[in-house]
Design brief:
CATH architecture of the largest domain: 3-Layer(aba) Sandwich
Order of helices and strands: HEHHEEHEHEEEHEEHEHHHH
Number of domains: 2
Organism: Bizionia paragorgiae
Protein name: Epoxyqueuosine reductase
Largest sheet: 4 strands, antiparallel
GO cellular component, one term: cytoplasm
Distance between the termini: 65 Å
Main location: cytoplasm
Family: Belongs to the QueG family.
CATH class of the largest domain: Alpha Beta
Radius of gyration: 20 Å
Low-confidence stretches: none
């Protein structure tokens, strides 16, 4: 085995040890096929009020502009599929990824360990870790690295475990062996398109972010539009509809990350509990959760919108 093959194997073995579902590697280069798609998506204002999506256009498409002399993009998946979901069928719904601790902190810790391992085992390697918080097209890189294909709902999909996982990257200045993309297995299925409560999947593989329930309940800071009344399918934070109906998600297996387990009170909360939630309860249940992003006032706004 040459050193490049050795390094690649070591990194993938360590990623598995750290609890990542899978690890794929691709060459750090300009994302040629993504460039016109991203430009078209932005030109059609499908980012809504997410103006940050318009920033750093070049960096989104070219990792060498993010990390000097970068050679490889290491893509990693971390499962978050829960073993149990909310018990009251009438309760406002919370996206499964937000049940436990905020994933940004958990994954950053793991990426730090992986970076440390690379530097200890291989030597002077520079790079940066990314968890959904910088201009990186993570799904495109994961697909390029052979970790899955981008489905009609625009989420990354794999035949073995569906789509309930987070994606993260390490972009480093080390040459490694690169994986090849996998094939698309959506076929003629349109389950996600048919089920979307707000018709946000405007074409197969194209989601209008400004129509998505996750956008309204998390990103939109203003009043929720009256025109959307009755269309949220009881989602108060995020939305899992397109993933829940996807046939490939019947292969989802529960995660084994204790920090992704929900607060003991969360799943049992009834419709009434949510409608009467106080700031103290919010702070207790969501102390370290990604739900804090919408703030107590935002969650109250969303719940009131469902109620009216």
């Amino acid at each position: 085995m040459n050193s490049k093959a050795n390094y690649t194997q070591w990194i993938k073995t360590e990623a598995k040890r750290l609890g990542f579902l899978s690890c794929g590697i691709s060459k750090a280069e300009f994302l040629e096929t993504e460039a016109p798609r991203l430009e078209d998506w932005l030109n059609k204002n499908r980012n809504g009020e997410m103006s940050y999506m318009e920033n750093h256009f070049d960096k989104r498409l070219d990792p060498t502009k993010l990390v000097d002399d970068s050679k490889s993009v290491i893509s990693l998946l971390l499962n978050y599929y829960p073993s149990q979901t909310q018990t009251d069928p009438e309760a406002p719904k919370l996206s499964k990824y937000a049940y436990g601790h905020d994933y940004h902190h958990i994954i950053k810790g793991k990426l730090k360990e992986l970076t440390h391992f690379i530097q200890e085992e291989i030597g002077e390697v520079s790079g940066r870790a990314f968890v959904d918080s910088a201009p990186v097209l993570d799904k495109a890189w994961a697909a390029k690295s052979g970790l899955g294909w981008i489905g009609k709902h625009s989420n990354l999909l794999t035949q073995k475990v569906g789509s309930f996982y987070f994606i993260a990257e390490l972009i480093i200045d080390l040459d490694l062996e690169y994986d090849t993309p996998t094939t698309d297995h959506c076929g003629t299925c349109t389950a996600c398109i048919d089920a979307c409560p707000t018709q946000a999947i405007v074409d197969p593989y194209v989601v209008d972010g400004s129509k998505c329930i996750s956008y309204f309940t998390i990103e939109l800071k203003d009043q929720l539009p009256e025109a959307m009344k009755g269309q949220f399918d009881d989602w108060m934070f995020g939305c899992d509809v397109c993933q829940d109906v996807c046939p490939w998600n019947k292969f989802s297996k529960p995660h084994n990350e204790p920090l992704f387990n929900p607060h003991p009170d969360l799943l049992a909360m009834t419709k009434k509990d949510w409608e009467e939630i106080t700031e103290d309860v919010f702070k207790k249940v969501f102390q370290k959760s990604a739900v804090k992003r919408t703030k107590f006032s935002g969650l109250k706004r969303n719940i009131a919108f469902l109620k009216e």
